[in-house]
Description:
The protein has helices at 16-27, 38-50, 82-93, 97-105, 146-165, 180-192, 208-225, 232-239, 242-257, 266-278, 295-303, 320-338, 342-345, 357-364, and strands at residues 60-66, 108-113, 127-128, 170-176, 261-263, 286-288. It starts with 15 loop residues before the first helix and ends with a helix. 53% of the residues are buried. It is built from 14 helices and six strands.
Amino acid sequence: MTAPNWIRAAIRAPDRDAERAARQRQARLTKPAGALGELEALALRLAGLQGRECPRLERCQISVFAADHGIAAAGVSAYPQAVTAQMILNFAAGGAAVSVLARHSGARFEVVNLGTVEPLPAGTEVLDRTLGPGTADFSMTDAMTPAQLEAALGVGGERVEAALEAGCDLFIAGEMGIGNTSAATALAALLLDLPPAQLLGAGTGVDAAGLARKQALIERALARHRTASNDTLELLRRLGGFEVAAMTGACLRAGQLGVPVLVDGFIVTAAALVAVRLQPALRDWLFFSHRSAEPGHRLLLEALDARPLLALDMRLGEGSGAALAWPLLQSACRLHGEMATFDEAGVSGPGDTDSNSTEASRCRS
């Protein structure tokens, strides 16, 4: 499939000079070298991405993209398809896990509906970007038309642009869609050239019979769509969901505009892998929040050479793992920017003791 023109726009390159300056500052902070572990590496990466010695993460955007999946009608989930629309209303009312986390962290929060089988009532506090009543059953046909895929990618890009305009400096994508672990598994199986049995998990909690049915449907879908294995965008069109495509577009647009992305669990990571296959330079802009209990998530993380910040055996989705990890990124920035140097604190440091107090003060201002 031919990509929309904006998809191929260049990903912004990190500022290596800013990263070097951050490394020099970090060497003078009042701690043994490496004592803050991964937090130090996070601060250096963010310095390069933001182009400043002391990075800051003050405002986060959490966008939950929701849509139904045609394959759900075949019984791949423990929940009926009506739950997608019901959960959208729960997100909007503040009752979902990610809604609670967003509220208490001060994140900017929104829910984006790309299409559900059950229509939402009028007046719902949800962004309506409906592309149809969910995707088609990808075990029998293509999940999306080319026009639907292009529109879904564009919705993701639009929400990143809106987040940047609102002053956000971090983007988190969440998802909701009954059947979307099946879509993520099918995509991952062809992208990683692995049998679906190695990737399959319980998703919403299906029993053994449901898991066997899910595997059979995915294997049927892979046999139908394997001819597209060398065309990443075409795979997304044939196997993905509206929300998966929107998250792919969001990742790409974030890298183009210079907004770091904190990636959530299995489904979001599948979208991130699609985006990185389309634009390998995007990988610099992706941080990975947690390793979920879904078996396929570990394999996706390995394919992206990703080291997640948390491992809590979560498998909820919604962006909940990323919302939990956001304060860790904030802490990495604050420690890097607000700790005193040896010179400022009057503490004897290793090696050269030339004063660096002017730069350190500037970072904390």
